[in-house]
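Record pair follows.
FIRST:
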Amino acid sequence: MTQRRTRAEMQEHNRARILAAAKDEFAHRGFREAKIDEIAERAGLTRGAVYSNFPGKRALYFAVLADLAEQASAPSPGAGRTTPEALGSFARAWVGRLPLSTGGPARIDTDLMPEILAEERIRQAFAQLMKLDAILLGLALERLDRGDRLVRVAETALTTLHGATQMAAVAPGFSDPFDIVAVCERLAVLDMDGGWPPAHLPWAPQARPVDEPWSPPPAIDVVRDETVPLTDDGVVTVLGLHRLEAVEEAVRAAPSDTWVTAILVTGDPGELGPLARLVVADVCTCLRQAFPRSAWPRLRVVIDETGGVASAAGVPSVGDATEVAVRVRDAKIVARAEGRGACHAVARPLG
């Protein structure tokens, strides 16, 4: 006798059918010409069922691209042991995913940048997600170099690689992948970064001692693509998608042996949540291939589309400007701060 699915299982099943149908529709017609009615028909569902799972066509497009990015495996160029080697390996993994000629099927992501440019709130979220990508890549480079701050080097490398992606979409074969890799390798040795702000940020609030329970739900660290032990001692930051650069304030202020976990939240989880998954997955897939695990940054990233982790941290209402940080010790919250500078305030050694 066939066991009936629960409501949650049926919703997940229907969502998977919609994503598969949308992927086919976007690949066949492109984002602009794709129709929700056609996607519903491909999925064997109603138009209303599509909209009950996704707020609009762009949200569905971002979700399809996010799924593809998370499922993709970058070519493995081997982990680098020096900053030029690692950045070169990262670049090889990146360009290895790009088309080299005009032949082959059309890329499904060709309408991504126009949709990001369509609204200021999306552009702002994307810019901050790129900041987070650069922080992740820069911190990994620093763990190999153990010298200067390398986030600006990472920003320049990502600018080069995203430019290569855009050229591959409009003029496949225009640039030589070996040249792009060589440029990124040379960026690793350039003196581009200045110092970091002083130990005390004048606008940072005071972290206040608290004694609160800490029982977060299971979560995935997208940097490592594995379940993250959120109950471990460390700093947990809850950041809206317009405040992601603040995570570096936590990393720089925290002792070197302290884990920092960034919980990404948004006021628009239906549309901006998948965008966050997509942008971070693009970088983390290549980072895991190009750097030895010992060089992966002591920074975990959790994309909290449901808000469950944020709620456990005492932040039941979230938006894209949210910035809250807590310190966890012995599976309890022992300090917290809210507002601009909260990440720095909580990450500084207590006492």
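SECOND:
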Amino acid sequence: MKLKTLSVAMILTTVPMTGAFAAAMDRTGQSISAFLQPGNYAEAGLSVLDADVSGTDKNGVNTGDMAASYHSASAALKIQATDNISVGLLFDQPFGAKAEYDSSSPNFSNALGGTSAEVTTENLTLLVGYQPNDNWNFYAGPVWQQAKGEVNLRSDISLGNNGAYSTFGLDSYNANMKNDDAWGWAAGIAYQIPEIALKTSLTYRSEIKHELTAHESFGTNYSSGQPTIAALSNMGNITEVITPQSVNLDFQSGIMANTVAFANIRWVNWDGFSITPYAFGTAASGKTLVEYNKDQWTINTGVGRKLTEKWSGTVSVGWDSGAGNPVTTLGPTEGYWSLGLGAQFSPAANYFIQGGVKYFWLGDADALTASSPYEGSFKDNHAIGYGLKIGYKF
């Protein structure tokens, strides 16, 4: 069975929103598939996630939809410098969070507005690969990562609601964590048999340690009716945040003429992850702003088929374990099941356009905060991801 032509036609098996929604703050899945394409290759992609996440707080009040939509960009350039050496530069936005509570629940809002948070990261990965023959590829290289975050916590404790963020007897807390650059590394091994469209790879990415300068401020002190005392303000102490190490296992193989099966298994070491700005940790008696207590496992598997000389399509299913329950109110879901559909159009042999959509059934979760082990219950939620990618061989 000769399936060599599928090595070009079925690039689609990396449909761009594979990791558009995952446990904790995992967003992209950190694929290196572009680096493993034959010859010289470039691509650019965009994924958009529209989630609907709501629940009831501990007082039985509906929280409203707290999940803000977000997009994630990616790009890659791979050069086959010699028969045995390849070089790749990959850009993605691997970790992040975006939450926006409205004024529905006094546990998460007050006269200043609703609780909100946004965390973003950007990665540049430089990989150098050595191919001793047509089957094996050994690769490694440095990873540059930039991270920043902003959070605004609101709770109307003046109404006697024992609000979600009232640990320090205050109605609000703000933190602005400035951009920080840090370095890590990635390494892996790949094996392929082009004649049967078989590809498999195992990739490790190291943890990356950031030291973010956090500017924090606190709101009104209701016990005295006066502005917060200076001892509870912080104008720039260092907040240490370590983005997690991870392992990706990818597999693809022809199973019949014009048809391939594919699978991705991803492990992310979220257990022990936390974000604790200095003044927040002091005021909240050592408690954390965000924490996860369980590693994440994600599995995506499916089938791709070449339909015509120019069109191909995929169907995939996915499962994500989540990163522990209860979870932070800034991301109150516990894993998911997903179903995805994708299509690829190849006007010529050297370039393509692909797109896809994926529906996520999000797992139920209880939410916690620094001031309470239970702040609400979030059930029956969902999300839809959309992706578009353009690829070019030269």
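COMMENT: Residues 1-18, 222-232 have pLDDT under 50 and may be disordered.
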